Amino acid sequence: MALHSRVPGGPIEQKWDTHRFELKLVNPANKRRYHIAVVGSGLAGASAAASLAELGYQVSCFCFQDSPRRAHSIAAQGGINAAKNYQNDGDSIWRLFYDTVKGGDFRAREANVYRLAQISTAIIDQCVAQGVPFAREYGGQLANRSFGGAQVSRTFYARGQTGQQLLLGAYQALARQIGLGQVAMYPRTEMLDLVVIDGRARGIVVRDLVTGAIRSHAAHAVVLATGGYANVYFLSTNAKGCNVTATWRAYKRGAFFANPCFTQIHPTCIPAHGRHQSKLTLMSESLRNDGRIWVSRTRGDARAPDAIPETERDYYLERQYPSFGNLVPRDVASRRAKEMCDAGHSVVPGGHGVYLDFRDAIQRLGRSTIAERYGNLLEMYERITGDDPYRLPMKIYPAPHLHHGRILGGLQPDVEPRGPARHRRSEFLRPRGQPPGRVRP
């Protein structure tokens, strides 16, 4: 077996520009001859389907929801980062690259992270062109706010509904291509299997969730954009429909599953409050801009938060990380919260919770400003917990949130091994030196 990263050579700032220039392009007239199947219609799937269709390819898009607007991408809240340096606080592509690699505990593939930083500004422009109503300053310029893991303000947002607005923008672009006949949309459709011919993905088998009919769809390439696998944990922030079955079926056909350990734990989720729960609710990362995280200095302190004087409060992130304070990377904030709870400082019975307090921000900025910035999030918190976050600190605890593992192709040797554990040649990667010939996902 052999896996190739396909990372281009050369200096990191030039890798992808050189690679794009050296790619063998597909003639615009030839793009009409190729058909691509996109499984999933969230932010990734809808954007991929719309972009491929606009390039001229024929696209079929499949989702098991009744509409692409029901994808779980709608649950994202805080914002999306880009190195536009609108705040003139020293941001740059290199700084975004550095912060991302460092925030990922130096485990990310650096060439990919740099490419992400490079295209970040264009992604914001594309979203604006699609009609995403990002927050704006008084003069009309797009607004930015701070986010965890960075000391500059580079996060573009739409209150606490960024995922919903991004998804609606992607859906509008997708709907336009559906209207033009470039995309065939198949809602309420579940992928049952991947069709592999000569070691390459050549289509999918699906089931209509309304009629139960089973059909197959041929394609020159297959794109899987079906979400993460956080539900391997009993309670996560993911919808229960995020069941990773499409990825599993590709794996059974011989694709390799890379980096399953890349599980992001989000530090600001509402703690579990009953055995009846099937998932947890995320509170936006943006709340750490103005909220302060603390616990009582006394172990097992059962007093109400407003009964604990300032001198007996431990703002442990500000104490341990004075440069970042409450805006440390997510994994750091999550580990510290668990450590404090394990040491007996939990503010929730059962040992799973710390405070996120807006008292000082409300005194400094006024309740109306906090409501303008985070009102829908605080309202959601009150509806779920029954506590008024303007009067009492919010209770939060880390929870499984994002997963960054991916499906990769495994290249088989000339002689296929026998037995149930054999891997077929990749439907996603081709050996070095082999001409492209066809469109690849």
**First-to-last CA distance:** 21 Å
Q: Main β-sheet: number of strands, strand sense, barrel status?
A: 5 strands, antiparallel
CATH class placement of the largest domain? Alpha Beta
**What would the principal axes of the Cα set say about the shape?**
globular
* Major beta sheet, strand line-up: 11-15-14-12-13
Low-confidence stretches: 409-441
Describe the structure.
Helix content is 29%, strand content 18%. The protein is α+β, with helices and mostly antiparallel strands. The chain folds into 2 domains: 15-261 and 405-409, FAD/NAD(P)-binding domain (3-Layer(bba) Sandwich), CATH 3.50.50.60; 265-402, Flavocytochrome C3, Chain A, domain 1. It has a 5-stranded antiparallel beta sheet with strand order 11-15-14-12-13. A 4-stranded parallel beta sheet has the order 5-2-1-9. A 3-stranded antiparallel beta sheet has the order 6-7-8, with helices on one face.
Summarize the structure.
29% of the residues lie in helices and 18% in strands. It has helices spanning 15-22, 28-31, 43-55, 93-103, 110-129, 162-179, 245-252, 316-320, 330-345, 359-365, 367-385, and strands at residues 35-39, 58-62, 80-81, 155-156, 183-186, 189-197, 200-208, 214-218, 221-224, 255-258, 263-269, 292-296, 313-314, 354-357, 394-403, 406-409.
